[in-house]
Here is the input.
Amino acid sequence: MKNVLKSSEPKELNNYKERYSTQFKKWNNVKSNRGTLTAIRSTLISDQKGICAYCEMAIHEKSCSVEHFIPCEQSTHKVNYDLDWQNMLAICLPPGAIANDLELPHNSPCCGKAKDNFVPDERLLNPLNLTTSLIFRFRSEDGEILPDEIACKQAGIPIEYAEFTIETLRLNVQRLKAQRLAVIDEITRELDERDDGSGSPTLLEQQIASEHFGNGGKNYPRFFTTVRWILGEGAEYHLANISYLG
Ligand SMILES: [Zn+2]
Here is the structure.
């Protein structure tokens, strides 16, 4: 999970809300308005630079779903979470719905499918309020995501909250661990192959980070936080250079 910096509400959603200001509209009503739905989806994906707000798998307009952090069923006539822009995130579709994921087990839901209608309390970290994703670390043997105890303490986030978030969103299902491990192996191989012993390891990490992350104007690679973690100090130098926040 990485933090999400949201842009302002798309004008299509704003118009929709104004048009139906006297009616109680549900998300299902918005979904049947193609123009509004498309604007919401594409703004979310662009804000999140093409990665799922929970697991960081790559998402596209046709392979994502709009997640309501506070479930729609909590909406009332007074507080409508269905149409609240600040309550929306783009997340991956349930396993099996993504064409290139077909060889992976389909019976291990994660992200929104795992969270289901759970009403978040403070234990579930919200990507919109997360100041940094450095509170997570990874196990290079199997791709498991774990809380970083020291970083959690520094960020003032109880380690139990990070653990609860990983558990609730099932960020350690085999399918995700296997894909994270592939990314860890790929970057590790790149570091080994390009290290001729003549330069500083941090410079090489920074160079690889700049190739993977770019200048922040385009989509990020899947498992951004994992790549960032492997590239360590070099990644932090690059991210500081491009004024990355989070
Ligand atoms: Zn996901």
